[in-house]
Write a structure and sequence with these properties.
alpha/beta; 6-stranded mixed β-sheet; 6 helices; 29 strands; binds adenosine monophosphate; binds magnesium ion
Length: 404
């Protein structure tokens, strides 16, 4: 058996090493239609107040509060988008609809339900004060106020805010362009019938989903053979366009494992083995022009766990996110775990609530080939190296994928 010449790097050290070498990509203006999920590159400041005009909060009558308790002549209407362009004189009122502009002269709105109408005369109860039932200009947002900070992730409310202040495009971090390659002569396209010894290329689709969730634009390179020259051609061609290369398979020490020598010939390999289970053969290299390469192990769970630990934070940094890691929470182990001698282990668990606590149950066999251990998992619990038993009921840190 060949032995890898790469030093075993501590998992946390390797994660830091990756992030230190990960550039933040540039930013550009992007139309709102393409903004969901992206990261704001600069503060957004309101150039005008919101609302821009005094806007009725209800359907009713606009009048002078001093006229409350009287019968008033209704002299016009201010509907949403169709203002009444004359001042409201003493002794008169304007019918107003939600979103309609409060006409000058008026200083309050009385709800439809609270008045009596007879012909064009409205009788308004006494005891109304100025300012009632309309939104004053700037009530939601003052001119010059910071609406969204740089680094904000753009979701529904953030995009709604930008649209409400009239911005049709926003400065956002560029999405990393990732070229994704599966390697291995045993792989066949999903949907084709595998011959004996062949398996469907499932990592491609798992990693595509993970990459998209992390905000990447993905180019699928398909299946690369276990043949150095063909692999090299595929990768070199793809790197002309891509910021990041992600491969799966071909990083262990078998004779057909060609990714490490390939990355060595193209750039600098910084990590070739990590003290991590699953995911020991994880490989990270920097390539010319600030590009990155991640050689993920072939076993399906190993490729996704190393993606979570190393690739996702890097892709988030590239886009300008400030929060790079998944949230972590202490959880109580609902089972007995045995730590690995020299590797941090991420075990896949489901979580349930017990009183105020989150309790972790194992998803079963933690074999790195068994994707069933990850499907439906709520978290990866971190079992520190050390060869000791970790008793049921102990607290461990959980990287949260989805809370139950
Ligand atoms: P390797 O690192 O290339 O030795 O692969 C380790 C294991 O992962 C082998 O059992 C491979 O068949 C499996 N594997 C590699 N690539 C894929 C893939 N794209 N989809 C599913 N399994 C894979
Ligand atoms: Mg292989």
């Amino acid at each position: 058996m060949r032995v890898s010449s790469y030093p075993l790097v501590d998992a946390d050290t390797a994660a830091l090493l990756v992030l230190e070498r990960t550039p933040v990509l540039g930013a550009g203006l992007v139309p709102l239609v393409d903004c969901p999920g992206r990261v704001l590159a600069e503060d957004v400041v309101a150039s005008a107040p919101l609302p821009a005009f005094p806007s009725s909060a209800v359907d009713g009558y606009a009048l002078r509060a001093a006229d409350a308790g009287k019968s008033l002549r209704v002299v016009g209407e201010s509907a949403a988008g169709r203002p009444f362009d004359h001042p409201v004189e003493p002794g008169t009122a304007i019918r107003i609809l939600t979103g309609g502009v409060l006409p000058s002269g008026a200083d309050c709105v009385v709800m439809l339900e609270d008045v009596q109408l007879s012909g064009d005369v409205v009788t308004v109860p006494a005891g109304r004060g100025p300012g009632q039932n309309f939104h004053a200009p700037g009530a939601d947002l003052r001119a010059g106020e910071r609406v969204l900070p740089a680094g904000a992730q753009l979701g529904a409310a953030e995009i709604g805010l930008a649209a409400a202040i009239g911005l049709a495009e926003l400065p956002v971090g560029r999405r990393p362009r990732v070229a994704l390659l599966s390697t291995g002569d045993e792989l066949v396209e999903v949907g084709k019938t595998p011959r004996r010894g062949q398996i469907p290329d499932s990592n491609r689709w798992a990693l595509l989903a993970a990459l998209r969730e992390a905000g990447a634009e993905v180019r699928l390179l398909g299946i690369g053979p276990d043949e150095p020259e063909a692999l090299r051609r595929l990768v070199v061609e793809a790197l002309a366009e891509a910021d990041v290369l992600v491969t799966s398979g071909g990083v262990s020490v078998g004779t057909h494992d060609l990714i490490k020598p390939l990355l060595e010939s193209l750039g600098d390999v910084h990590v070739g083995r990590v003290k991590l289970k699953p995911g020991k053969p994880f490989t990270f290299a920097t390539l010319p022009k600030g590009k990155l390469a991640f050689g993920l192990p072939g076993f399906p769970v190993s490729s996704l766990v190393t993606f979570e630990v190393f690739v996702r934070p890097a892709l988030r940094k590239m886009q300008g996110h400030t929060q790079l890691q998944r949230p972590t929470l202490p959880v109580r182990l609902g089972y007995e775990a045995r730590a690995t001698a020299d590797r941090t282990e991420y075990q896949r668990v489901t979580l349930h609530r017990d009183g105020g606590e989150l309790v972790a149950s194992s998803t079963g066999s933690q074999s790195s080939s068994r994707l069933m251990s990850l499907a439906g998992a709520h978290a990866l619990v971190r079992i520190p190296a050390g060869n000791q038993g970790i008793g049921k009921g102990s607290f461990v840190q959980a990287m949260i994928l989805a809370l139950p």
